[in-house]
Amino acid sequence: MKKTIILSALSTLALVGCQSDEAKVTDTSNAQANDITQTKRELALQLSKNYVDIESTLRKEITAQDTSIAVSEFVEQQPLSKFSQRLEIADEQIRSWKGITQYADQILEVRLANEQMLAAWQQGKVDPLFAFEPSGDDEQWQYIEAYDVYGQIHQLDVYQLPEVPVLVVDSNSSAELKAGLQAMRSEMRKLGQTTQVQPYEQDRNAKEAFSTRASSVTTSPIHTTQLKKIRLADDQEPWISGKAEIYALVTGVNPSRDEPALDLVEMPYLDYDNQDYYPNQIIIHWSRYRWGAADIVLMEQDDGTDYKKLAKLLVQVAEEVLKAIPDPEVQAYAIIPQITNKIIDAIPDGALTNDDDFVDVYYTLMQDTSYVDHLGAGVNAVVTLEPLTINPTRP
After folding, report:
1. I need a labelling partner for 355 at 20 to 30 A (CA). Which of 3, 56, 104, 244 fits?
2. Considering only 156-160, 241-245, 354-358, which range has the smallest mean pLDDT?
3. How many CB atoms lie within 10 A of CB 205?
4. Mind telling me which Pfam families this protein's record contains (predicted)?
5. Sign for the pseudo-dihedral over CA of 31, 33, 39, 41
6. How far, in Å, CA of 224 to CA of 286, rounded?
7. Residue 70 to residue 169: CA distance in whole angstroms
8. What's the start-to-end Cα distance of the chain, in Å?
């Protein structure tokens, strides 16, 4: 997916003061993405050379029920070996680059590149290849590098699925994203934001949970908007990319003071494009936003992200927009797209998805309003949103 800056009919403010910081974050992100790719390349080579020692573990753990294995499994078997030490150092370094060391104990894993390879893997008639996802824009990839069990390198087609099993050295994207959002929340709160992270797991019993809390704290109903359905466009992702990890950034203005309101929403179910998902997930809590209006930016993670630096940048550019407006009440919710556009503009190339973490954006969503099969401004996502009022539990 290409990064497209969606400009609203409203003029986006030119904030020169932030541009140098945005460039620094982009440069850092690109450099870290290259470092992480190089680290995974080295690990793929080491795994291929150690295949005889780890084959039994790989075959035991990679099954139809779970097509990945944490590298910590290898470390536990031979904790004192140089190979295990290299795995531990690499995992720690990558978590440090991403700014999530204190939120995740380990994230590296080895996964089967595609479920269609499972039969060939289980038959065991051919040795696997060990690969890693290249850095940069996937449309510029010329081939996928992979090592055989003798340490020899092969060049695989970017889009044609290989006939042999391919094991990919990668991060556990779900664990990384959960840790990354917590790191962003922590950094945003240090900067004075009251950012919340909405975990998807809690939404399964959201109505009961919020009703219980409402009855003990206030008699007022809780007004929310619920994501009933979502679908991403088919974007022809390369076979090595695996599942997507999407999250949402809800943007608006604080109801009690002239500051931006930024919340994060986990969307761990949104694995693949061209498929409908029905999460019934609460995505906006209206008590947190002025004028009953908010925007939603859909984003996808990738290797170059330093979540702490990204959080700091997003807060900075959002605050700069409001500082440039002497009386926000005059423009009212017309301010919100200006904040959102500046955030999209500031998202560093290389930060998340193959030089592109921006997926789509929904402008000026209103409280108590339904949106059925509603296209995003980038025409890459379709959602159905419904208002949901949660009343206090009756005695």
Report:
1. 104
2. 354-358
3. 11
4. DUF3103 (PF11301)
5. negative
6. 6
7. 10
8. 51
The residue with tokens 């990738």 is 302
15-24, 52-61, 186-195, 313-322, range with the lowest pLDDT? 15-24
Other beta carbons less than 10 A from residue 120's beta carbon = 17
Cα separation, 249 vs 260, whole angstroms:
12
Q: Which amino acid, residue 70?
A: A
Nearest Cα to Cα of residue 377 among 296, 268, 308: 296
Would you state the structure tokens that stand for residue 86, as one six-digit string? Answer: 């290299």
CA–CA separation, 235 and 12 (whole Å): 28
- Token reading at 242: 């695996």
**Which H or E run contains 320?**
helix 307-323
Task: Classify the C-alpha dihedral 123-125-131-133 as positive or negative.
Answer: negative
pLDDT tens profile 242-268: 888 899 999 999 999 999 999 999 999
Which tokens sit at 258? 């002239």
Q: When comparing pLDDT for 355 and 98, which is higher?
A: 98
**CA-based torsion, 113, 116, 118, 123: positive or negative:** negative
Integer CA distances (angstroms), 36 to 19, 23, 373, in order = 26, 20, 38
Taking the model in full, what pTM does it have? 0.85
Q: Answer yes or no: is pLDDT of 6 > 70.
A: no
Q: How far is CA 122 from CA 55, 59, 69, 225, 305, in A?
A: 12, 7, 15, 45, 35
Query: Among 110, 100, 102, 41, which residue's Cα sits nearest to residue 75?
Result: 110
- Decide if 262 contacts 295 (C-beta within 8 A): no
Tokens coding 174: 């779900």
Q: How far apart are CA 129 and CA 243, in angstroms?
A: 20
| Residue 124 pLDDT > 70 | yes
Is residue 71 within 8 A of residue 91, CB to CB? The reply is yes
Dump pLDDT digits (tens) for 278-320: 999 999 999 999 999 999 999 988 767 889 999 999 999 999 9
